[in-house]
From TrEMBL:
Annotated localization: Endoplasmic reticulum membrane; Nucleus
Pathway as given in its UniProt record: Sphingolipid metabolism; Lipid metabolism; sphingolipid metabolism
Record's keyword terms, sorted: DNA-binding, Endoplasmic reticulum, Homeobox, Lipid biosynthesis, Lipid metabolism, Membrane, Nucleus, Transferase, Transmembrane, Transmembrane helix
Catalysis: reaction(s): sphinganine + octadecanoyl-CoA = N-(octadecanoyl)-sphinganine + CoA + H(+)
Entry's Gene Ontology cellular component terms: endoplasmic reticulum membrane; nucleus
Source organism (scientific name): Lamprotornis superbus
Name of this protein: Ceramide synthase 5
Alphabetical GO biological process terms: ceramide biosynthetic process
Topology of this chain in the membrane: Multi-pass membrane protein
Biased composition (Polar residues): 367-381
TM stretches of this protein: 149-169, 189-208, 215-234, 273-292, 312-333
GO MF annotation: an example: sphingosine N-acyltransferase activity
Length: 394
């Protein structure tokens, strides 16, 4: 019974009429993609399994990179491995912090003030220091960003080098000629699986990386990215998939470069990189993506291969991605506008270390929205913004 149910489920999931164009079957894609003995083949679902051991390998390389390359670089830049000020031991406040709330409201602060005979400001500072002492150091954040910067830069230039000789880079209609009977070359396979493995490594490392307020959002984002890459691989839309991957990699390393400059306290360099990131992001996501990528997936593919069920799903996901591009671009433009007014890039509301200003009002944490202004005057950007993670220093 169980075997029959599993077979029925498998047949339903791999329904050819969903995955493939009309008159194409999985059997047609099972053989060699070229002349006998050529070794060429079409993408197969089993290929994506190789991303898992590769993801573990990438994670191991990252640990070595951060320890033996990124950390010495940070130390040479004067970034110290020292954490924020630790709160003085206090059993009553510790119990409130661990069991009730990490940010007590005004009424609770008054009660604690009477109970401990402490000034309210002193209690506010204690909670601020207690929250901060569990946060990672600037050195840790620098190492994490340097790893991401190195990978994003490397994979972007690999993608450009690969696509420069690919015919579909210059003529997107080549993505659909003779589809889905398009051979999988070794370079295309490595590019695709490496990107997939990297996002799987982010899924693993997210549980050990710096914890931020948008943990769940980023978890869903990574999961959706993995789903889109895997989906496009299994139905052999890898040609247009490489265009999407390379386009999105074009701005990511600039953002990480801005964060590195921020951690190293090179504010002007940080602002310059962020502005450059914003320009590249908006040009690629609001200009090139809709007029180059969506044009070929929606219109050229309709003309050359016609729609079928997985075609609709694939394009639905890409259009949804465009909606996110619009939202993130809006947030970036707002951040850049604030930066021009105030003279420096705003800090993220997901800040890993809170402001140490003695005048900070802890109860103001209830303020929500895209931007919130702390009492020390620093604006903060809330949300994904393509991974933006400006961190406030203590």
């Amino acid at each position: 019974m169980a075997a029959a149910a599993a077979a029925a489920l498998r047949a339903w999931f791999w329904n050819e009429r969903f995955w493939l164009p009309h008159n194409v079957t999985w059997a047609d894609l099972a053989g060699e993609a070229g002349p006998p003995g050529s070794g060429l083949q079409y993408p197969r679902a089993a290929h994506v399994l190789s991303a898992f051991p590769l993801a573990l390998g990438i994670f191991a390389v990252r640990l070595l990179f951060e320890r033996f390359i990124a950390k010495p670089c940070a130390i040479n830049l004067g970034i110290q491995d020292s954490g924020p000020h630790r709160a003085q031991p206090n059993a009553i406040l510790e119990k409130v912090f661990t069991s009730i709330t990490k940010s007590p409201d005004g009424k609770r602060l008054e009660g604690l003030s009477k109970q401990l005979d402490w000034d309210v400001r002193k209690i506010q500072r204690w909670f601020r220091h207690r929250r901060n002492q569990d946060k990672p150091t600037t050195l840790t954040k620098f190492c994490e960003s340097m790893w991401r910067f190195t990978f994003y830069l490397s994979i972007f230039f690999y993608g450009i080098r690969f696509l420069w000789t690919a015919p579909w880079f210059w003529d997107t209609r080549q993505c659909w000629y003779n589809y889905p009977f398009q051979p999988l070359t070794s370079r295309l396979y490595y590019y695709y699986i490496l990107e997939l493995a990297f996002y799987w490594s982010l899924m693993f490392s997210q549980f050990t990386d710096i914890k931020r307020k948008d943990f769940l959002i980023m978890f869903v984002h990574h999961l959706a990215t993995i789903g889109l890459i895997t989906f496009s691989y299994m139905n052999n839309m890898v040609r247009v998939g490489t265009l999407v991957l390379c386009l999105h990699d074009a701005s990511d390393f600039l953002l990480e470069a801005a964060k590195l400059a921020n951690y190293a306290k090179y504010q002007r360099l940080c602002d310059a990189f962020f502005m450059l990131f914003g320009v590249v992001f908006i040009v690629t996501r609001l200009g090139i993506y809709p007029f180059w990528i969506l044009n070929t997936t929606l219109f050229e593919s309709w003309e050359l291969i016609g729609p079928y069920p997985s075609w609709w799903l694939f394009n639905g996901l890409l259009v949804t991605l465009q909606v996110l591009h619009v939202i993130w671009s809006y947030l970036i433009i707002r951040t850049a506008s604030k930066a021009l007014v105030r003279g420096k890039v705003s800090k993220d509301d997901r800040s890993d270390v809170e402001s140490s200003s003695e005048e900070e009002d802890v109860t103001s944490n209830s303020t929500k929205g895209i931007f919130s202004t702390s009492s020390n005057g620093s604006n903060r950007l809330n949300g994904h913004v393509a991974g933006s993670q400006w961190t406030g220093e203590e």
